[in-house]
Design a protein that fits this description.
Elements (H helix, E strand, L loop, with lengths): L16 E7 L4 E9 L5 E2 L2 E4 L4 H21 L5 E8 L2 H4 L2 H13 L4 E2 L8 H7 L20 H20 L8 E5 L3 H12 L3 E5 L3 H10 L4 E2 L3 H5 L5 E4 L18 E2 L12 H7 L3 E2 L2 H4 L2 H8 L6 H9 L1 H15 L3 H18 L10
Parallel strand pairs: 3-5, 3-6, 4-5, 7-8, 7-10, 8-9, 10-11, 11-12
Antiparallel strand pairs: 1-2, 2-5
Helix pairs in contact: 1-14, 3-4, 5-6, 5-11, 5-12, 5-13, 11-12, 13-14
This protein binds nicotinamide-adenine-dinucleotide (NAD).
Protein name: Valine dehydrogenase
Keywords: NAD, Nucleotide-binding, Oxidoreductase
GO molecular function, one term: oxidoreductase activity, acting on the CH-NH2 group of donors, NAD or NADP as acceptor
Amino acid sequence: MGVFSTAGGTEPTGHEQVVFCSDQQSGLRAIIAIYSTALGPALGGTRFYPYANEEDAIHDVLELSRGMAYKNAMAGLDLGGGKAVIWGDPDRDKSEPLLRAYGRFVESLGGRYYTACDVGTYVQDMDMVARETRFVTGRSEAHGGAGDSSVLTAYGVFQGMRAAAEHRWGSPSLAGRRVGIAGLGKVGKHLTRHLLSDGAQVVATDVSQRAFEWARETYPQVDLVDDVTALITSDIDVYAPCALGGALNDDTVPVLRATVVAGAANNQLAHPGVEKLLDERGVLYAPDYVINSGGVIQVADEIEGFNFERAKLRAGKIYDTTRQILLLAQEEGVPPAVAADRMADRRMAEVGRLRTIRLRHER
Ligand SMILES: NC(=O)c1ccc[n+]([C@@H]2O[C@H](COP(=O)([O-])OP(=O)(O)OC[C@H]3O[C@@H](n4cnc5c(N)ncnc54)[C@H](O)[C@@H]3O)[C@@H](O)[C@H]2O)c1
């Protein structure tokens, strides 16, 4: 695989810029990928992960940065899409010099890329990175940061689910509906609260006993089942994947009882074509990157100086965006995932084109 083509192919990946960053003394090996700056500086988190090899790291950063461009475009942000990976074991390799070296590389891009947290990086890491660069979000509240992004992620997922319910049943209320949540983590817990206060019945599962204990103590009215298979084959109206990616695949889609899927997990469709399987089975799928964008909306707000109410207002718009996508999908006879990609492409092209209107200071 080369940087200018996809794995094994000759098609260009479409990325604007891919930067390899190395600092031997601290052990930093990072790759920053900028997919698009059509809408503004590229925003996306830093994944710290022990990839098996360099090729896997490149593949991941190229895929993730493209995903961020679509997510940010549909979130209505004036931000493009980018992502970074640090190749290493976060438990073993993370250090002050490594994070600060990384911060200097982010700074060297002059604001073309803003970083944030992702798998393996946390708010305190972003506080450290911020000692070397201005172009960082997702810092701790003590440092003017937005704090835990799962708060608005869950709120946005709930809004997306309401829009899907409206499209399917004619009312945005989840009252009386049975919603199955797979994964009672940071997002799943907040989502449970929103659903119960709307009058929904919640059935949930997790692989962690602590999550079960939390549910028994906090919300005894939640039904708990052993695993995801038991959840998706039970009598639920809505399935909310809130754990790992690939939840919708050749094994799960055929046995799904829910007729709406709306959850927080990234990359829910295991491979291209699953969106068609869902459509054929009459399952309405609210595209993951559209309805889980509350978190990026929360951290993006930090760039202006964090204001929770402003960020919440923006995350609330996920309801309207999801409705528009579901209507477009219906009109154009395509699955909602395809309609979402089309809308994002259109916004990047239309708003991006405005940059061709030359300003006085541009020569
Ligand atoms: N936190 C955010 O702001 C945010 C934003 C966008 C997308 N997401 C995505 O949403 C999902 C949940 O994020 P989170 O922050 O709540 O993560 P988390 O790690 O806090 O929670 C995930 C939960 O899923 C459980 N889990 C793992 N494997 C499982 C399985 N096979 N079956 C059932 N449960 C399982 C874990 O035990 C954990 O309780 C992830 O896919 C994440 O990428 C999160």
